[in-house]
Every structure is written in C-alpha cells, then in structure tokens.
Fold these 4 entries.
Entry 1:
Amino acid sequence: MKRILLMAMLIAISAAGALSAAPEKKISQPFEYSGYSSKEYDSYAKTTYLVEMSDGVKLAVDVYLPDKGPKRDKFPTVMEFTPYSRAFISAAFKPLEKTKAKNLMGGRGAEIPMPFCFSKLLLERGYALVIADIRGSGASFGHRLDLSPEIGRDGAEIVEWIASQPWSDGSVGMKGGSYMAISSILTASRKPAPLKAIFIMVYPFGYQDIYVGGAFNQGFITSYAELLRTMNLNMNKTAGTFPVMPSAPAVDEDGDGELLDEIPLDKNKNGDFLDDYAYPDNPNDPPEYADGSPREHLYYLATRDHLKNASLNDWISKALFIDSDTAKLGLDPSFGNFSGYDISPIARVPEIMSSGIPLYHVGGWFDAQPRSTMTFFSTARETNPSKLLMIPGSHILMSPFYKHLGVSQDKTLKGVETETLRFFDRYLKGIENGIDAEPPITIQVMGKGWRSENEWPPARAKNVDFFFSESNSLSTAQGTAGADSHKSDFSHDSSFGPRKGNRWLMYILDEDVPDRSELDKKCLTYTTAELESDIEVTGHPVAHFWASSTAGNGDFFLYLEDVHPDGRAVLITENPMRAGFAGLKDINKIILRGSTGVEVLPKLPWHGYEQADYVDGIFNGGDVVELKFDLMPTSWVFKKGHRIRLSIATSDWPTFRLDPALSPSNNPAAPDNILPTVTIHRDAARPSRITLPVIED
C-alpha cells in the first residue's frame, strides 16, 4: 500500500504547485499555465454505473462530477479505459493511508480510485472524469483478448454513452499511459463523434515492442501477464513488488452503503475467493458474504467471467513472427483470428489519421517504447494536430535519471499534468491558449535542459560515423583493417541494482542509474578516447556492422554508454537484433503489410519480422552477415573528458528469451547450449560502425 501511495504522490499529481500562483497573469507554455482557467471546484460527486454494450456485456463505469463550486449543468469529460481496475478497495487501509488517499487520489473510505487514472486537477478545473473497467477486468462483466479491436468498440460505445448523459456537454477526451493509451488509440480509431482529443503516454505500438529486434521480451510479458491475471480476478495479494487489491464493486446489492461486503468471503484465505465456490455450476454452492445478506452475486459473476480471458503470455510467447496466426497458437477461436499486424495498435493509425483527432504524445527516454512514440508522432503529425513531450523517465514516468541529471522528477511529472490541462482546455473547452501555435515538440536534452523542436528527428542533426577500430577503440576515423572476436556468455544480464530492473521490464526501477562497467567485461566493447568537447547526440543512433559466428544463428544486444572519468559506464540507450532477421524491408509495411499507403516516419531500419523474412542458419558456412539496426532514440550530452562506448553482447537473459537454436531449454547454464564465438569484421569493404546524430551548438 505504501508503494501505491508513493506512486500516487508522483503520478496522480494534485494541482497544488502544478500551476502558477498568479492566475491573473496569462501564461501558456510547456509546464506553465495560468490565466486561462482556474480552480473552481473543491470536491466531486461520484456515481457508478453498469453500462450495457451492444452485445449485452455490462461494463463498470465510475463518473466523477465537479462539486462545491459554480453551478453548472454540463461539463466536458475526460475518460480513461483501464484493465487495472477503475478503483481499488481494501479493509487494510490505515487511517493515515486513508487520509493520504483522500488528499491525493480522491479516495473515500475503503475505496481508492486508480491512481494513474484519477485527476484531481481536471475535476477542480471543471471537467467530469470517467474511469471505466474494460471487459474482463475490475467489476465489468465479459472476457477479452488483450489488444483486440473489440476494446475500441467498447470504448467508442462508452464515449457515445457519456455524450448522451444530462451532465455532459457533448465533448469527450481520453487520456492514459501504456494500456490506457492503447485503449484510447483503439477507441479513437472508431471515430466516435464526441471524442475530440486523446492524450497518450508511454505506449507499446505493436509486435516490435514485444519481440524487440525479433527477440522475445519474456521478462516483462511473463510477469506482466501474471500481474494482469491476479488483478483481473480481483485477488487480494499484498506481498511482492506490486501489491494487488480487489477492484471496487459496482453495485451495493444489500444497500447498506458499504462496498467491501459485496466481495465474497475468501474462506481458505489464499487471496482468491473464486476457488472457494462452484456457483453457478453448482447452484447449491453460492458465494458467502460477511453480513450473510442475500445477493444476486453480481461482483462474483463478473469476476468469474474473467476466467475466460485469453492469457497474454500463452499466445504471445508462441507468436514468433509478426504474421503468426492466432488460430494456430491454441487461442480460443471465439476471439477471432489475428496476426501481429492486425492486433497491433499501429494498425489503427490510418483511421486515426483520417479522423484528424488531436494527439498529445508523452514518451520516456528510458521507456521500452520511445521508438513507437516517435513513429506515431512523426507519421500522423501532418494530418492530426500533434504534440510531443519527451522526459527522462521510464515506462511509469519516474526514473533514477532525474537525480543523475539534476532534473526535478516531481516538477516534471507535475508539468505532465499541466500539459494535460492545457491540451484539453484547447480541444475540449475551446480555449485559445496557444498550445497549437507553439513548437510541437518539447524534449529533455539530458545534460542541457528542456528544449523545443519543430520536427523529429531534428533536421540540423549531423550523422557522424564512429568506426569500430583496433584495440577496441571507437573513432571518427576508420582504423586498421581487422576483426574482433568474442566468446558468447549467456550469463550476461542487463538488469541492475537490488531490484534487478531495466527499461524492458518497464515497471521495475532501481535507485541509481545503470552502471555497465562490470557487465561490459562480458561483452565486446569499443570505446572512444576522452572527448575534447561536449557532444550532443539527439535522434536515433544506428549500428551498421558485419559479423560472422561459429554457430548458424544468434542475437546481438547493443548498449550505448557514457563512460565517466571514474570508470562508471552509464547506459544511455540500447536495442537487440536477432541475426536471422538481418534483411532490410520497407518500413511502410509495419502497418498492415503496407496495404494502407500510409508513409511511416521517420525512415528507420525495418526488418519485416515475417516468417518468410527469417533466415535460419544465416551464419552457416562462415558467411559474414551485414546487420543494420537502430537503437532507441535519445537526447544526451556526452561531456568533455568522458568517453563514448558501444558494448555488444549476445544475450540478455532472463529479460529476453535465448535464441532457441542455441539454447533449446532457454537456460543459460544448460549443458547442451551452443556458445558461439562471434566475430566483428572491419575493413574498407565492411566499415563496421555506429552512426550518431550529433547536434552542434
């Protein structure tokens, strides 16, 4: 519970301190906003509904209306559509925790709104807030296949329902990060007329965010799928990295004003009430409740529906290619037949572009998906009013890099909340605050500060080649011809610190920035001499090298690092690549095989990832293979006296599944593993290098 409250203090930010203390002065610029709207309401009135979808499934919807302020009959509405429960409930909250929850998240009694969704700021400024459980989660009925287009259909129906309510002025916006960003994207693709704008943060965009460079991110998917399962089954498990509490019931069936007693008794006290009863299969074994009152068992039956959810890990872990057919992966055919193309949010970009809906993107330099953020922004900005904000955060917006850079994490996250208000004031309330007239991009140039840009990547960036050279050096001048060999070490693990987090695990953070100085001993490295002046790298670094191997297959994991004078090697950006996908393809095909005609930007290396694109045994016969792929985008200043390093590993286990051709059991210590020696070739015909986008002062 303490972890949830701590996150809420930073993520579900109150309006206090977020805006200027001088509302009479008009200011509207990134992170600063006053004089255009002001705090008007001190409280809210909350009502919960079960809203019936067109197929008869009922979804739980919480409506928060501003209260204790000017009398208004109608409000613009901001909606979040979540699989993580619109609100939690627990009898274990201590008095101090209840007070904090009330002040930070609007909690009342044993109930706390989902901290990533609730916005005290928007309520105070005269917005209605709607938080809804997607089907198969929380107190909603039904079951689902995650990422499926059905989520967008439900979202659009809720948007239309909102617009039809007597308290709605007919204008709706959506916001959210990660899954809630996906649900916003899927909903917007349905083009419901009342939906006017979406504010989306740190979102995965498709197959390439799960099979990164063709390598399966098992570390995240396996743990996340289990977390999602326990949440969706309304379990009560308070131990572990992320405590899970049951969702607040939608209906107070006994009418006593308490929702806690709507949750069936957990008779065996294992945190799971479903395994205590056989109802409705056995009508004589109905759920029991603390007060003994009779019920229709709405909460129990809704939760029981969730047992039919498709396990995310069970099918994604088998989808080795972007064109893998879900019908062949053991998925219940009732969910339909999809490939990685169809079920990716990026597949919905053409509909969103044709709608022209305004978009605000927030990404984190240390998130797992900043490439996706840049792709959506750059591709749709000509058709949709678009804003982009890049912060030095991870998937949950926080990160140890704020402290490392001397940037206030608290002020940055409050700034994100301020941007939410500026955006919705413009597009839901019609306030001419200038957000659409200023430069569309704000980035944290790490080592310099905040800066506005007009395009991504910045057109003034100069691509500078840093060549792999003799003595493991990295140089702007091509060195002596040669080759460098490295014996694979499957014990290489990029996670760091006591909590063993990294960008790919998304919600696991550590207290300090990742120092790879020890891990680099398990890698092949190339390092520059001490820099004679600062070098700013802003854009997409691209590695381009030639490799051979004593095995037919293999993976390459690249890490770009800032080596400090004291020897610390701080990880800046990274990316893996499965060698069998070395062939370059048209990046426009990332959207539904290129069938829509959408021009995908920026033009980065793309490797197809279809089954036909994969070359099994690509290194057989001693073949030297050309590999070209981008690292995650960044904006970092390498300081004078520091050095730039590129380290190359051939595994990152347990975050990424080992290449099954080299480790059939996916075990780095298995005796039947093949541990190849890989060789990087560098000569005039094969100028192995990394190209850095450098911006000169």
Entry 2:
Amino acid sequence: MKKKPIRFSTIGAFVTGGLALIIGGVIFLGSGEIFKSSREFVLIFDQSVNGLSIGAPVKFRGVQVGLVRAIRLHHQKSVEFPQIAVLIGVHSAEQGSRVGETLSLSDPALLETLIDKGLRAQLRSQSVLSGELYVSLDMLPDEPLEYQLASSPNYLEIPTAKSGLMEDLTANSANLTRSLSGALENLQVVLMNINKKLDPVSDESIQTLQAVRAAMTHVGELLDPQAPIGQQIPKSLQEIEEAAKAIRLLAEYLERHPNSVLFGRSRVEVVERK
C-alpha cells in the first residue's frame, strides 16, 4: 500500500490559517470590548455627520469612554427637516483606581447631573486631512440645554452642541502654515547663499523665488481664519503639506547641487555622470 505524499502546501495553509485566527483573537480580546459592559445613549445632530463612522471613538476630554454603535436618519413631526440620530455605547466602570473611584458615565443618574452642569456632545475631527470624526463629550456650560427628542423610552439623550470642527481646522491650519513657512524660509536662505556664490543667477531662478513668495502669500490668504471655508479645505491642506515637503527636498537638492540654479537639474546630473 502506497503512502500518500505529504502535501506541504496544505500544511502551510492550515498553519497560516491558524496563525491568522490566533492573531485576530489576540487583537479582539486585547481590545477588551468583549468583556466591557456598556449602556447606549442617543445624540441628535442637525448638521452633517459626514466623516463619522460606526466604531468611531467617543471621548470625554480626550479619554475614550465608548464607541459609536449606529448612525440613523431620524424624523419627528415637530421638526421640519430630518435629523441624524447617533447611538453611542459608553463603557461601565470596571473598578476603582489608586487615585480614587473610577467615574462611570454610563450611570444615568450621574450623567443627568453632568448634563445639568453642562455636559454636551460634539463632533470633532480626528484628522483634518482624512476627514474622520469622533464624538467628544465635554463640559460646555455656556451651551443651551436643548433636548431634541420628545420622549425616548429606550435611550437616554445627551444634548449636543455645535461642532468643534472649525477650532480643529484652525489649529491644524496654523501648524501647516508654520511648517510651510519654515520650509520656504529655508529655501530662500539657500537661494540667497547660491546668489552670493554664483554670478550671474539665471532669470529662471529669480522667477522661481518670486513664485515661492507669491505661493506663500496665497497660502496665508487661504488659511486665514476669517476666510470662507469650503468643502475642498481638507484636500487643500493635504496639498499644502505635500508642497512643504517638496520645498524642503528642493532646498536640500540645491544645497548639494548649487550649479543647478544656473544650468538646470538634468545638465548637472549629466556632468556628474561624466
């Protein structure tokens, strides 16, 4: 009786599949979601929630306390236009800590007390470039206390406030502006040093420097907090970030090959090969 040949490809497939299951289990169990009990609450938004997805984090002052469970259209007769209902799951406290008892936002009594003192839900940006959002819970006592649901026997409602997306955009714009400004300043320093070493400087290099300065002025106008904000801002910010990187690379190249200002990059590379 002949023995069947060992199929190493089959063994490899089983091993690979087993490893995938083990890794997936470790990630799932390591997140702790399966062991956490949570309570669901509802948030009603009048604005677009584009960028918010199921599974997005819910944070209280930067500390993750839950996840977005569902996003649904909601309409009631007392409101002219449909609204967006966002269901969130807030984790229950598991244990105390060395610095005191763990605060459980899933406790309805405690949550109602916090709401009376100014607890509100907002949409905030995880990344301006990607457009991803998360739900932020914070104490905003100056925001009016307005419940959107006439009654909700299944969920306790957490009032919402206007989104903090403009604040997030302003902060990210300021960071990108500083980054681009630094890159342009470095490029100008490099070109000035080259101007001192190489005479005369080509008209093309002068035009390049003028274009760089004009671009910086345009960027400043685009990122002005008083400027109108359009739907293309995230894309524009990404392009600005890429431009800053390109300018840094150009400055580094000019430092290594100052003759390229006079002769161009291709001619310099040909000379180097010789």
Entry 3:
Amino acid sequence: MTLRAELNYSQGPANERPYIHTYERPPELAAASTRPLKTNLEQVPVEVTVHDGRVADPPCAMETHGFTLIQDAQTSLSRDEFYDGNKVRKVYYPEIEAMLCEQLGCGHARVLHHAVRNEELEPNRSDVKGYGLAVHTDANSNASQDLFRQFAPLLDTQYHTGRFLFLNVWRPIGDEPVSNNHLAMCDQRSLVSPDDFVVCDFCLPGTSVEVYRPPPTNASRHTWYCFPRMTRNEAILFKQWDSDPTQLARICYHTAFRDPKAASSAPVRESIEVRCICFFPDHEPNTCPPLPKDPDPIAAAATLVEQAVNMLSAWPAAAQTWIRVSLWLGPWGVRSVARILAQDGQGRFGFAKLTPSEKGLLADRLVERGLAHKLQKGLPPINPWPTLKMVMAIFLGAVPAYWWGHATAPA
C-alpha cells in the first residue's frame, strides 16, 4: 500500500522561537506573558507519498531508518484492560521492558509513562488523548540528555556510562486492524540538516521540553512509511534520541495522518504508546552525558515526581479530585500527597533502590521544592460535573448506609 496523504508540517515566525502551550492559562497570565498565544506555529498541510513499510526492501530498521516493526509483540492485555492505567503499569510495562531487552540487546530498559489514544473518548476522559496530527519528535538531544541525567542516578553505576536510547513503543489496542489515522514515520536519511531540525518549546505547567517541529521547506525530499492494518500483537519501535553518534538514524519524526481512502465506517483508532529509556552499559566508547561525581538520588527522584506532576492534566479524574481535596486540606494534605508519591507503590517511578528513610527524605524534599504550588499549577481548569457526580455518589451511598446502620442497631 503506497498512498498520497496530507501531513501537517509547522511554520513558525522568522523572528521568534517556536513554542506550544499544552494547557489553558488564565487570560490575564497569558496576556502578560512574552508568549501570549497558545502557539506561534501554523500548521501547513503538505501532500506526500507514504510507503508501505511492510514491503520495504531493505526492511525498515532502527539503525538506518530510526524505526522498525515488531510483528510478534504479544501482550496479555485485552482491549478494555488497556484503558485501566493500573493494569497497564503493573502488567504492560514489564512486558515492554522485557521485549526491549530481547529485541535491542540492552542491559536495562525502563518505561517512563504511557498515553492511550482514542479521539472518540478524548473529550470525556482526561487519561485518553487524541491523535498527534503534526510532524514532530517528543524530544531533542538536550531534552533526552536531561532525562538521562535525571533518571540514571537512581540506577546502578554500571548504567551511568555506555550508550542510552530514548524511544517510543506504539501499539494498536483495538479488536480490529487499524484502517485510518495510521502512524507515519520519516526515514531520517531523507532529512536535511540543519533546516529540518527546528527546536520548539513544548510548554507544560511549570516547565518546558525541547522538541523538533520541521517546516514544510524540504517536505518533498522526505521519505515516509507506515505499516497498514496493524493489529494488537504488533508494535512499532521508533527513536526519540540515540546517544550513539555513529548511528545513521538517531531520531524519528512521526505523525498520525488521515487516510483519504478510509471508509467512513472505519473503526476508531485505539492505540497506546509508551516512552522508554534503554541502557547499553557495555557500549564503547562512552556516549552518555557526564553525571555529577556524587549524584544525589533524592534530587533525581524529586525531579521525576515533578515531571509527572507537570502532566497532572492527563491523570485520571479520580486522581485529580484526590489532589484537589488534598490541596483544600492545606499543608497536611500536601504532605500526605508527597508521602504517597514518594512511596511509589505502583512502581511508576522506579524507586526500588530507595530505602524507607530515603523515601521519607524524598517526601520532605518534594514539599520543600514547592509541591503545593506545582500541584496547583498542574491541575487543569475544573470541570465540576465529574466532581459533582462523585460527591453525589458518596452522599447517596453514605445516607442509606447511615440510615441502615441506625435502623438495624440493637435497642
């Protein structure tokens, strides 16, 4: 399947660095900012040829193209289970880490976080996203090296040197093969340097991440691929950043796109992507950025928690309600949140090496570093209806329980 389709490139102003705000700011704050707009980028649709990666010769490979298809990427999760964040973290994360070690030969792999995408469910669920319909990367060299510096101190020293790879694993989760809104990847060898590597600030509450958003200037030279009719037991690996400068491909531009030939009755695309970091300690020469001589694991752990808090708008509604209630309770509530995050009961942050006393210190550090302000800033504008429904459910459940307890109490 080779098809013509429109991909959205990004055109920014000539005299200003590109930026995107991922969250809604109060109008008065936006107006007072040096970056008052939600974004200063304009999407430019360009018609390109998208090749069938299944019949590519030679096959699409991580080392040369920046991406590859794993055709036997078995998972034990069903469609519905992928919408359960706890199940994904407990079951799917270990599956992906084991697959990466097997497929790439890395010494250690760690899933950082995930995103489930379904454009029909996105309006009603904070933990489900729409499709990324613009050509982009999720990081650049600076952002990826910052990630390494934040995460590596939590691991054994053997993983502090060698090579690291920041990558995504993308998988459909629906019961039907994907027939629209495919994921397209660009062969890095077709990119033009430095024109195609335009840095954009991806602004989150309290922080920003450097990503790439290419202009349409060289779009006609780019070679694009997709893997049609993917199923749940297939997965695409694609690079965000590879520390090894000898690799032909070190990044991978990607985007979702509408298939002009897709039937109007085509099922909605349902997918999950996980961002991961892989460590190759035996790689020579060392291509990892230097760490401090005495790295502080508590500071590194605090940074990882704060990154998750920056994405608070994507947390489930129940978790956001818990945060709002905790903030309402004041310092005691904030400290309670800090303790729970530091415990890392679900293994979300990889704090297995931290002792109970170190986790206590981590909770203190989070509070000292302004956790209350970061939580407040990370929360999205309140939608009162889910909270009202929860309060009503509690009230309607508590009143009958109270009545029943008194009505049946012995005289």
Entry 4:
Amino acid sequence: MPLFLQPILKTKLWGGQRLSEFGYQLDNDTTGECWCVSAHPNGTS
C-alpha cells in the first residue's frame, strides 16, 4: 500500500520563493522551510 505525504511549508522571516525551484507550490513570499517527510507534532506530513 503506498504512503502519500503532503509537504508542510513553514513561514519564516528570512523566507522567499527559492523552494519553488524544487517544484513546491508556494502561497507567499516568506516560505523558509519545507518539512517533506515529518512525524513532528508541529507538522506531520
């Protein structure tokens, strides 16, 4: 059975649009982190 994950995009003061170069759909100009595979309580992918 395949496991489908959704990346968690985190807004940061120093963020920008650079993650769009890796194919991520960014909603704003302050995206600074992408949690692609995560089981963290603050952002499970």
